[in-house]
Each structure stands twice: as C-alpha cells, then as structure tokens.
Amino acid sequence: MASHNANIVWHAASVRKEDRQKLNGHKGAVIWFTGLSGSGKSTIANAVEQRMHERGLRTYLLDGDNIRHGINRDLGFSPEDRKENIRRIGEVSKLFVDAGLIVLTAFISPYKEDRQIARELVDEGEFVEAYVKCSLEQCEVRDPKGLYKKAKAGEIPEFTGISSPYEEPEAPELIIESDKQSVEQSVDQLIDYLLSRGIIAE
Asked: Domain for residue 180, yes or no?
C-alpha cells in the first residue's frame, strides 16, 4: 500500500537556520527540563526564561499543562498518549530551534526512550537535557497542585512516581538538585552551562 506521504515534498527555505541565529545573536537550542511532578521544572524554566529575556535572548517556553490545553488536548496519560505528547513537543521544539530561538520545555517526560527521540530531532549540541532532581518525598511535601494526594487516594490513575514509573536520565547535560539549591542558583547553573557551550555569549 502506497504511503499517504508519497505526494508530500519537503521544501527547503531560502532563509537558513544559521541566518536566523546570526540575526538573533545566539544559537537555537532546546532546554529540556524533565523531572517528577512538583520538582520545580516550570518554576525554574520560567526563571531561566526571565533571565534570558533580560539578556536580550529570543526564547519561548513550552509548559506541560499549557500544551495540553491546546495542541495536545486530545491526549490522556496512558503510556501511548504520553509518548505521543512528547513526540509532538519534540517536533514543535524542533521548529523553534530552526527559527533560531532557545525553547524551554517543562514536561515530566518520564520515559528515556521518548526523551531520546526528542533529542534526535535536532542537531548535535542543540538539545540540553536538564534533570530537575528532587526526592519523591519532597515533591509530595510540595504537591503544588494536590496531585500526589489525589494519586494516593486512587483518584488519578497512572500518576508518575506513584502508580507509573519515572525513568531517571542516565547522562543528562545538567542535573539541577532543586531540593538542595535555590531557584536563583539553578538559573545561574543553567546560564553558566549555556555560556560554556557557546550557545549564548557574554
């Protein structure tokens, strides 16, 4: 059976990614924050974007809950839907990188395989996996949305860390220990890394 994509042709753009990066004054990249619910991904990602904005960098933040209000509103939380959720985020992130922007994503993204697929969508050096490491106990204490309480009461099936697994990154570019350092220190850590990699300049 012929592929439904047989008549679809990729069109090369006249303006290249390198041209957009030159205009922006920095490289495009994905900063992929992963970690348990309540670990501080969104808080740190927002603080990083604020700092980047102050430096005149062009950014965009994709947050898990917000994406599920729109582009992924048709997806649930089964392993299959979670896989598709992350696949779409990866593809959207790739577009932002191609636009020469620094895109920050804040998603639990519990499965190693799915994070690897997202990594492989962009060029070498354009994917920065930032593992926001926080003990499950601390995440439960914080529980900003009351989700752990609901999960333990059986109200939320397939909840990461309780009834669904979280696969820790094995070799992330950064480990941000959010239960041991402040948001400010976490932001400094990430900005320093981007400077050291030449993704952004002083």
From this structure: yes
Whether 191 contacts 184, CB under 8 Å: no
Annotated catalytic residue 93: no
Whether residue 3 is contained in a domain is answered as no
Which pLDDT belongs to residue 21? Answer: 84
Which residue in the list 42, 109, 164, 178 is annotated as catalytic?
Answer: 109
| Mean pLDDT of the region 101-106 | 96
Provide the token pair at 139.
Answer: 């995440």
We report the CATH number of the domain holding residue 169 as: 3.40.50.300
- Tell me, yes or no, if the pTM score tops 0.90: no
Segment 161-186, tens digit of pLDDT: 888 889 999 999 999 999 999 999 99
Mean pLDDT of 143-163: 87
Rounded to an integer, what is the distance from CA 161 to the centroid of its chain? 18
> Does residue 8 sit within a domain?
no
Domain count, the chain: 1
